[in-house]
Design a protein that fits this description.
The protein is mainly α. The chain is built from 13 helices and two strands; from the N terminus they run ααααααββααααααα. It has a two-stranded antiparallel sheet with strand order 1-2. A hairpin with a 2-residue loop joins strand 1 and strand 2. The chain is globular and about 80 Å long.
């Protein structure tokens, strides 16, 4: 309490009047009509979102059903039975003894290639040279596995790392051409597939590179030395299905990549670079640094897929031969395309495409050419790509209509 001083110098009597109690300020309660309107808007937004989701799901279901119906018509037109063909596909991919393990062994490299493609696509880059990067990764792995002496597990890790390096180096050439000489990555990665195939073919003709010693192999057979048993990926037997442990490696990598792309600054900058390069440049995102890293990472994933194919035993019986990639690179590109840059969706699509690939081996008993599965795969790809295009066109028309009404 402070004491006031009168003008004549005498202290004034203190003010003993009690202060009026102050009540805390509260915001006025909303009117009943306003609260009802707010609640109605929220319910309307939820219903609109639910309707959009159901419409999207229905569109996908119709497109997939149409693709399966067209596939059935195609099979019937070629003299086969649609029910027998689809039953054979299921037997060859899932229902037959040990076929689930075979499908898993194919799905793993498809998933790895797709993950790398998602990384480059996120940065707005189109890498279509995965087939060559898979081949170079497998070649690097085969060379290290044959030449490096040491404990088996150490050699196994080294050859997997060598596969990553091989794919990264091959994609790095395209990155250097892109940001050093302004060569489109679509063109360079595609042409490097042919160059890489010729280089590996040259290596398989020379014993000082990849060709196995003449003892134990047929004359003129281009084949690398088989990996030693202790340098191969361990295999797990589960209910009669045998598959390599690379499955767990691929799933861990997929989970880590999903976190990096969605929750880290690096993933955000990649997305910014892919959606609007000019805005990314103004925000300080260097395209050569992040774009080049994304392209190299994409090749590294493909190279790892090649090394896993070699060390897993599902391709080439632990040896490198001409045509070793077996279109895994191209199919992995389709997996990423259908998954629309979603890691979780890529896992499912990789399994579906792997089942189509392994199940096609059982079509001979039905009298239908196994190449029909390529047509089925193509129809499924179209079925999964048409809905996003239709939804995009519809949204664009709505935006144009709204803009026209506003003016």
């Amino acid at each position: 309490m402070t004491t006031e001083i009168e003008s004549d110098g005498t202290p004034a009597a203190p003010d003993t009047t009690p202060a009026e109690p102050t009540s805390p300020t509260t915001s006025p309660a909303p009117e009943p009509g306003e609260a009802t309107a707010t609640s109605g808007r929220r319910v309307g937004a939820k219903l609109a979102k639910l309707g959009s989701v159901s419409e999207t799901f229905s569109l996908y279901a119709v497109c997939i059903a149409s693709a399966l119906a067209l596939s059935a018509i195609l099979v019937e037109a070629t003299g086969g039975s649609a029910t027998e063909v689809f039953s054979a596909l299921l037997d060859g991919s899932l229902r037959g003894p040990g076929r689930i393990g075979s499908s898993i062994g194919v799905a793993v490299p498809l998933l790895l290639v797709a993950l790398g493609t998602i990384v480059s696509n996120r940065a707005g880059l189109v890498n279509i040279g995965q087939e060559g990067q898979v081949f170079l990764g497998a070649a690097f792995a085969a060379y290290v596995g044959a030449e490096l002496a040491g404990p088996g597990p150490l050699v196994l890790v080294a050859l997997l790392v060598a596969g990553v390096v091989g794919g990264a180096v091959w994609a790095g050439i395209a990155a250097a051409l892109k940001y050093g000489r302004s060569v489109p990555e679509v063109l360079s990665t595609l042409l490097l597939v042919t160059v890489g195939t010729q280089l590996v073919g040259y290596g398989l003709k020379n014993q000082w590179l990849l060709l196995a010693p003449s003892e134990g192999r047929a004359n003129r057979q281009q084949i690398s030395e088989q990996l030693a048993p202790d340098t191969r990926l361990p295999r797990i037997t589960w209910f009669g299905n045998e598959f390599p442990t690379s499955l767990f490696l691929a799933l861990v990598i997929a989970a880590a990549l999903a976190f990096v792309l969605a929750r880290t600054v690096w993933g955000f900058r990649l997305q910014m670079l892919g959606q609007n390069p000019r805005t990314a440049h103004r925000a300080g995102v260097a395209a050569p640094k992040y774009g080049g890293a994304a392209l190299v990472a994409s090749g590294a994933f493909a190279g790892l897929a090649g090394a896993v194919m070699l060390a897993g035993g599902d391709f080439g019986n632990y040896t490198l031969v001409p045509g070793f990639p077996a279109s895994i690179g191209w199919t992995g590109l389709l997996v990423a395309l259908v998954a629309r840059q979603r890691v979780s969706a890529a896992i499912v699509v990789a399994v579906v495409f792997a089942c189509l690939r392994t199940g096609s081996g059982f079509l001979a008993a039905t009298g239908v050419e196994r190449r029909v599965t390529d047509v089925v795969q193509g129809l499924l790809v179209l079925a999964l790509l048409i809905p996003p295009a239709l939804l995009f066109l519809r949204q664009r028309r709505r935006q144009q209509s709204a803009a026209g009404a506003a003016t």
